[in-house]
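In the previous chapter we treated chains in isolation. Here, by contrast, the input contains three separate entities that must be folded as one system, with a combined length of 1032 residues.
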Amino acid sequence: MSKTNPGNFFEDFSVGQVIEHATPRTVTEGDRALYGAIYPTRFAIPSSAQFAASVGLDPHPVEDLVAFHVAFGKTVPDVSLNAVANLGYAECRFHRPVVPGDTLRTRSEVIGLKQNSNGRTGVVYVRSTATNQRDEVALDWVRWVMVHKADPDAPAPETVVPEVADAVAAADLVVPAGLDFSAYDDVAAGSPYRLGDYAVGERIDHVDGVTISEAEHMMATRLWQNTAKVHFNTEARPDGRRLVYGGHVISLARALSFNGLANAQLVAAINAGSHVAPAFADDTVYAWSEVLETAELDAPGVGALRLRLVATKGRDESMTLRGDDGKYAPGVLLDLDLWVLVPR
Amino acid sequence: MSKTNPGNFFEDFSVGQVIEHATPRTVTEGDRALYGAIYPTRFAIPSSAQFAASVGLDPHPVEDLVAFHVAFGKTVPDVSLNAVANLGYAECRFHRPVVPGDTLRTRSEVIGLKQNSNGRTGVVYVRSTATNQRDEVALDWVRWVMVHKADPDAPAPETVVPEVADAVAAADLVVPAGLDFSAYDDVAAGSPYRLGDYAVGERIDHVDGVTISEAEHMMATRLWQNTAKVHFNTEARPDGRRLVYGGHVISLARALSFNGLANAQLVAAINAGSHVAPAFADDTVYAWSEVLETAELDAPGVGALRLRLVATKGRDESMTLRGDDGKYAPGVLLDLDLWVLVPR
Amino acid sequence: MSKTNPGNFFEDFSVGQVIEHATPRTVTEGDRALYGAIYPTRFAIPSSAQFAASVGLDPHPVEDLVAFHVAFGKTVPDVSLNAVANLGYAECRFHRPVVPGDTLRTRSEVIGLKQNSNGRTGVVYVRSTATNQRDEVALDWVRWVMVHKADPDAPAPETVVPEVADAVAAADLVVPAGLDFSAYDDVAAGSPYRLGDYAVGERIDHVDGVTISEAEHMMATRLWQNTAKVHFNTEARPDGRRLVYGGHVISLARALSFNGLANAQLVAAINAGSHVAPAFADDTVYAWSEVLETAELDAPGVGALRLRLVATKGRDESMTLRGDDGKYAPGVLLDLDLWVLVPR
């Protein structure tokens, strides 16, 4: 019998099943440096231990998205190795910052199944939870993916479609223990704009663009131990191109958003996300944001912005999400709905 | 007189000569992260400090091959700067895990010399030993390289060809102090297959492939302070191509072998190795393994597998090492014979 | 009003103005590893904590140029985002080694302004000072850049051109506290050549070349949080090429200079520097040095070499800086005047 991992097919999943994912992973200062080498991030908390300590975060957290990518990567061999497409995310909450030395594990529970009418694929819904070496929750999220069946004649499971929130409610956001923005240093952070300076409906063109290189997206994706073949192997797709991991585009957009959102220091939640179009090396990625909601939180000086963060191939100064036909505008790569923490 | 290093030529070596190589090198968490960004490694011990501690290894070791590459790189300026070819390895044993903060130095003794009949080159045999900052041996190995003569008229030295073992005997493998696999966590490690599940003669196709990029192989090779010009300089070879460092292919194959050998946690020895064909950027590397020998070792729950690890350009599902003519099959890049430690 | 950073234009600067640059940055072991992956550096002090401690430097400093790039990168968004050209450096002194855990901030004072006769641009002179988390000076330097005016009709400021030294005097070099080369290990460092072995006027061809890749120069430049668009975005220049950050060429040349200057352990000062021609991916960079001055310093066993370090595209064994017409020879990329500390 083969000792290699074939991944799970649609008929291998059952509602209520719990999967303990392999490969616990210790986060280090090396991850911080590589993240900064691959993405143009300049947010003051992950950049400076001194700044982080000045707002109550000591030891020095890494970018929230480092934790997201590491935790997400664990699920790929079991959940999405045979995926047709990553369909969506919801209810992703960051419960505590991850610091160098933390070891993350991820566990997933199957919370929904729905076979497609073609009989050859189905949608699998999982709630995944990443915990640290003290069994504290670092982050959790729901994701749903379309997965191949190995045997088209395998019987369809009972359809269970879980209810997921359109967005995490502001009241349900977790503020990191000790976070205190009351002595926040705007100059060091690089922007005078605080919660009250952002208005719902406001759009911000983040101006800068980054051209993707093959080595960079592969190094990032490998760092997260993501094993999907299409990112690494020119022989895995008929067109011979390596598909950029969707999370790479998320991190590029988040880092580019510094220019206009420099005080959006921490990601508190990802409410929803669509990878609208694939990205490839030599594409130049830009980003724009729309303010969807604002909230004051129950921590000193802390507020939250709910943003639509859009990554585009080529710059779209008009910041158009959808055309008159309701479809995504050409060039849109990513449509991400997230909560970030800002000083108020 | 020139102050740059011309390297040693064949006539510069003498049997019994000891060379203290320059550039001691401290290993850090940055090396771990870069190794993980460049190679798709997922072995649980180097990935997770918590897992490593659970099997008795604390502080957290880096990949054994990090130590190998660093230690090997030190020898290049003195031993192989004027090499025609790296001919072989033998008797490479890993004596203790290397952890962040360890500083490695390498010393080589010339143990054999044999001028070739063409009078223009010769084979140099060295035994190299890498020690840490406490003068403890981290690893040692024998290697032989074909080296140019600077002066074809220099007299041939007396021929001395050292005897080297075909393979390190299982009884001579060094188990890291404290290693204890009696509470080994198969789920975290990613595989239920232990020593007894592998049979001599069994072959495992590791399935996955990785396409090499120029930046990645150069960054890896430079990280090990390997100075061979052909890896970095398009003007160093008539064809204008940068040759991929042979050790890069070793690490790619080792990392790919996770899929089928996830419990092959540590490398205990390298018995022999041939770089059968050169690799270049845009090649897609795959790997397969053959089980050559199995052994129970004198440490709790610890066994050893002796493997032939073969890297190929393009996937060879037939796992053919040699054709009917006895020559290596087309596509074979690397033929490596190594011992790995596994739970039993 | 736009929340993105438009950078400063010539008319936005005034003599005496002090700019506190954003984004304090903590240096880590990850920076050391990435620096070693991107540049072929082998100087024993940054390579080995044990060697560094043996010459009095404990904790283990990173390369001086890591500090330079990080500190310089901070100034880009405020000083040179709208620059036409970086015209020069002077009086750059390294006051103390930077070690992992140090957080660097940079502050600049405008010390000169001179509008160009075309009325559309002007030269801005700044003195920048990088301090650590204890408010100790890590390094300081003067630089002047040609910057666009936003409004050509803005009135010209009074012309102030500061006096800058042609070179830092040997007596003004800062030797790191505790540095002691009296038990210096030539073998570990990789060269027997000490202060007295170098003669003023001597030129050294550093022999080796490195071909630049896009991913490597972008990762390096991003690591320093340098935000100049031309380095990252193929859509930022009419020719669709990404310009290599000048500091990348400085670090390449410095690392290549190991071969001939292995004992040039620390950079004490940068006296002057010209980025003579742009560099692009696929260029192969070589370096040569000329000894300009030698000095004994007031620390045990410590001397200094003042060097002209020249980077070229393609190797120039003739080591020609300028042609008969007084212009830089074809192929010269960088002409850097610096002081390095060596054992005597």
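The mean pLDDT of chain C is 97. Residues 40 and 255 of chain C are 5 Å apart (CA to CA). Compare these points with the single-chain example from earlier in the chapter.
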